[in-house]
Structures are given as C-alpha cells and as structure tokens.
Specification:
Strand order of the largest sheet: 3-2-1-4
Shape: globular
CATH topology: Nucleotidyltransferase, domain 5
Number of strands: 4
Number of helices: 3
Radius of gyration: 12 Å
CATH class: Alpha Beta
Strand content: 25-35%
Structural class: alpha+beta
C-alpha cells in the first residue's frame, strides 16, 4: 500500500514556502519558508526525507507553482536525485 507525501511549493524570487500533506489532505507540519537557492532546495530535501521517515511514507509527489524559471533550483535538485531515491 502506498502512503504518499504531497509537497506543495509556493515559489518566489528570494524565498519559497512549502506545505506537506498526507493522502487525506491533513498537514504533516507547519508551512515553512526556505531560500530560493540550491542550498534552500537541499534544506527542503532534508525536510522531505525527515517527514517521510517520521510518517512512514513511501511515495512523494511534489508540485511547484508554474512561475517562469523561479523553481529552477528545486527542479534541478530533484531531477538529479531521482535515481538516488528510486
């Protein structure tokens, strides 16, 4: 059985805000902000892994706001790590 973590990211030029939900739509943590940079994307990755482990989740769905190229750091990090987590 799949236990999914849904991650929504509101993207801005300097900071992003993330929200983690389970399959029922309940928030798994408070929303949090992080820098819109590669180090900020790595911070989000750490929070995703931690939340997944704490809640025994085995599938992750990530959605970012479609705003030009502002989500570039997130997309690059997660695409480069797809094989690592598969």
């Amino acid at each position: 059985m799949s236990n999914k973590l849904y991650v929504g990211v509101d993207v801005h030029s300097e900071d992003n805000t993330a929200c983690f939900l389970n399959e029922e739509g309940s928030m798994l943590s408070k929303t949090f902000s992080f820098p819109n940079s590669l180090p900020g994307a790595k911070l989000l990755e750490e929070r995703i892994v931690q939340t997944g482990e704490e809640n025994k989740l085995n599938e992750i769905k990530i959605a970012t706001e479609a705003t030009s190229f502002l989500d570039l750091h997130l997309v690059v990090l997660f695409i480069s790590n797809v094989m690592y987590y598969s």
